[in-house]
Amino acid sequence: MLNVAIVAGGDSGEFGISMKSGKQVLSHIDREKFNPFLIVVRGKNWNCTVDRKKIPIDKNDFSLTIDEKKIRFQVVFNAIHGTPGENGKLQGYFDMLGIPYTSCDVTTSALTFNKSFCKDVVASYGIKTAKSIHLFKNGDHAVKRILEELSLPVFVKPNNGGSSVGMSKVTLEKDLNDALTKAFNEDTEILVEEFIQGRELTCGVLRTEGQIVSMPVTEIISRKEYFDFEAKYKKGLAEEVVPAEVSRYNSERCREISQMLYEKLNCKGVVRFDYIFTGEVFYFLEVNTVPGLSTASIVPRMARAHGWTFSELITRLITEVV
To answer: In 56-67, which positions are buried (b, 16+ CB within 10 angstroms) versus exposed (e)?
Structure first.
């Protein structure tokens, strides 16, 4: 039986969501096939709770010692949203130790975590993206320059991060400085992006049994002005329609684009691609290489609509890398 380390937590504003994802994986993993351990990563503290006792992880070989018995892991199930699990840092560590993991590799993780760089690469494949400006904390981020290059309304968001933490929608010039400050409180880089009116669609993709498979396209309908952190995780503030009520042709287009990007970006594990659909064009928003797996998350619902239980999805993700 394989020892599986489910890593969760991390060092970003998504810590709580990651913990929910990790606990969901722990509760649904097939224990006839896998021996799971939930490992909480927080700064320099990496621990696993066994019989209510916190046991530290030996970072020299990523092992766990219980009652003088050393436990090694054959595979890591990565459930960390944000740093260090989604930006390539942990991936490099596991690569050096030779431990396989259920998410994208170092290069893909680092690229896709940087929203601006990722958009540039995606645009090179002929996919439309919103007009934007990439700003650095110590650089020029004057409101005048932004308004010369972009038209209001705009979204202001951390360039490296997820779950809409630190994100604002700005419709008035007077609110722009506050939005920049809010985003810079979360990251040293931010993205200011023109608003595109349309429907928000998302598509989950994974490789299983050697084939790239896309799950049903989902529409996100927020009851707030946009799909912010609260709308994502507070019950009743957003509706996810699975499958999305779009034509079969446009559903297939979305799935084909997503599968193409999955292959071009060399993705691994389950990945979620987000778009704004104008009725004719799919505008790429971002890619989530470690998407949420909590009870409120979209990917488990996509899997069910595809005909897989959550347990089966977990099994497929693990067996694809070991």
So the answer is: ebeeeebebeee
Q: How far apart are CA 286 and CA 112, in angstroms?
A: 8
CA atoms within 13 A on the CB side of 287: 36
Domain holding 150: CATH number?
A: 3.30.1490.20
Q: Indicate the DSSP class of residue 293.
A: -
Q: Are 181 and 208 in the same domain?
A: no
CB 233 within 8 A of CB 162: no
Residues 117 and 248 in one domain: yes
CATH value at residue 82: 3.40.50.20
Expressed in angstroms, the distance from the first to the final Cα of the chain is 12
- Mean predicted lDDT score pLDDT of the chain: 92
**190 lies in the same domain as 215:** no
Residue corresponding to tokens 């993705």: 267
Q: Which domain holds residue 293?
A: 110-128+197-319
Asked if residue 175 lies in contact with residue 225, where contact means CB atoms within 8 angstroms, the answer is: no
CB 258 within 8 A of CB 270: no
Rounded alpha-carbon distances, angstroms, from residue 37 to 20, 73, 167: 15, 9, 33
Q: Which helix (H) or strand (E) holds 122?
A: helix 115-124
d(CA 255, CA 289): 16
**What pTM was estimated for this model as a whole?**
0.90
Q: What is the pLDDT of residues 14-70, one digit of tens each?
A: 899 999 999 999 999 999 999 999 999 999 999 999 888 999 999 999 999 998 999
pLDDT tens-digit readout, 87-142: 999 999 999 999 999 999 999 999 999 999 999 999 999 999 999 999 988 766 67
The closest of 31, 59, 91 to 48, measured between CA atoms, is 59
